[in-house]
Amino acid sequence: MEGGPSARIREGDCAVLKRDEVFKAVSVLRRRKIIFEKQWFYLDNAIGHIYGTTFEVTSGGNLQPKQEVEETTTETKEAGTDNRNIVDDGKSQKLTHDDIKALKDKGIKGQEIVQQLIENSTTFRDKTEFAQDKYIKKKKKKYEAVITIVKPSTRILSTMYYAREPGKINHLRYDTLAQMLTLGNIHAGNKMIVMETCAGLVLGAVMERMGGYGSIIQMYPGGGPVRAATSCFGFPKPFFDNLHEFPLSEVRSLLSGTFSTETLPADPEENALVEEESNGLSEEKQSALQETEEEPATEASMEISPTEEQDTMDINAEDVEFKENKEKENKENVREKQIKQWERRKKLKEAAALLREKNADGLIVASKFHPTPLLLSLLEFVAPSRPFVVYCQYKEPLLECYTKLRERGGVINLKLSETWLRNYQVLPDRSHPKLTMSGGGGYLLSGITVVLEKGKSDSSNSEPLKMEEPSSKRCKLQDLPC
């Protein structure tokens, strides 16, 4: 996969814009207006630069690489001992809002505006050194239009989705996703089954970890798979050659053996030949009808003047050309639809063949649906001694799934876990946990498949029935003579 440390930004790439802790995924296109964090700009000047370059937004929405300015440490900073005498009355800043707007209109850079704000602040020198750094950081964030363009990855995209649209990924936190990839033993050459309704984020993470080697079968509900986040990764086309898809609605028929591919149409080239033959026959019929219609028309045309005859001929020729062009367009559209339908059914046939082998190397489930029926049916396609991981935003569905798996058997090392995450601020003399933290990142149920014996499965089905009987009733039945 392309995208080392020296990878350069190219037109058509998928990139991620970063400003502090805010991310946004965009496509790199020329003359396309991008709006990000109340700034608008064009990415034309970014093409050709290395990923990770920081740009400044100049007048006209153009991007220029930011030049690093070395901070002079010769002058000692004047700072107060504490902030007890500072009163926030709104009068400490001499520059007004209109003055700052006038500076922006003149084209003065954000760094110079921040410097002028510091010089015109009456309370800046009385603040402590830590408070001064905090003040400068806050003003830079407000007035400096600085943007970094980074290459998309699982960590960046999962952070972006969790911060901007957590509902689309079922509140799947980035550390939980990392644990899923580890517990699922995702690596190159695997044959994985992925069932997710997280906008394609989990699928993209699995594809990135596998690096284009191996095969992935995506199970999807509804009419088709959703891969909005997968497209943000910017994978090359070979990555999608080994990506298959199969609808959840056909899983039961595949397990029961009633799924068939007889409805698949013939090869599109054969269909095209049949169409051409039928079109040829229809054209012959149309020409015969036109000849019969032209015979009375010629008799009537003898009475029409030459100028009128020429006008009618021109109009008829234009109508014929318009009809022919329209027929050609309709035929091309029909052919394209048939080819797409044929290719889709061909991929469905390939996915069904891979699932019938029942030797998948792992299973990952992260959906908004109840996990129990999904897991019990999809585990049939996983080979023994292989890991499986199930994610759910809530604990109760996974508890039910846990008990069902214990009753069914065929799995070992079942674990239900929840990860706890806290971010820390790491700065000189002020490292501490951040005041705000995530309330929860969801729950994971993991385990390993083993061979499920038939006798064991029968006994496992009968054991719950025996346990449901009251103990007193069982004693009475045992005491009765035969």
Structural key phrases:
single chain, 482 residues, alpha/beta, seven-stranded mixed sheet, five-stranded antiparallel sheet, 16 strands, flat
What can you see in these coordinates?
This protein has 482 residues and is an alpha/beta fold. The chain has 14 helices and 16 strands. α2 crosses α3 and α11 runs parallel beside α12. It starts with 13 loop residues before the first strand and ends with a helix.
Low-confidence stretches: 72-76, 263-286, 291-304, 457-477
Radius of gyration (CA) equals 34 Å
| Arrangement of strands in the largest sheet | 10-9-8-11-12-16-13
H/E series: EEEEEEHHHEHHEHEHEHHHEHEHEEEEHH
Give a quick precis of the structure.
The chain is of the alpha/beta class. 43% of the residues lie in helices and 16% in strands.
What are the SSEs and their pairings?
Elements lengths: L13 E6 L2 E6 L6 E3 L2 E3 L12 E4 L5 E3 L31 H9 L4 H10 L9 H15 L2 E5 L3 H11 L9 H10 L7 E6 L4 H10 L4 E6 L7 H5 L10 E5 L3 H6 L11 H34 L4 H51 L5 E5 L4 H8 L8 E6 L3 H13 L2 E8 L5 E2 L6 E2 L9 E7 L4 H15 L2 H9 L3
Parallel strand pairs: 8-9, 8-11, 9-10, 11-12
Antiparallel strand pairs: 1-2, 1-7, 3-4, 5-6, 5-7, 12-16, 13-16, 14-15
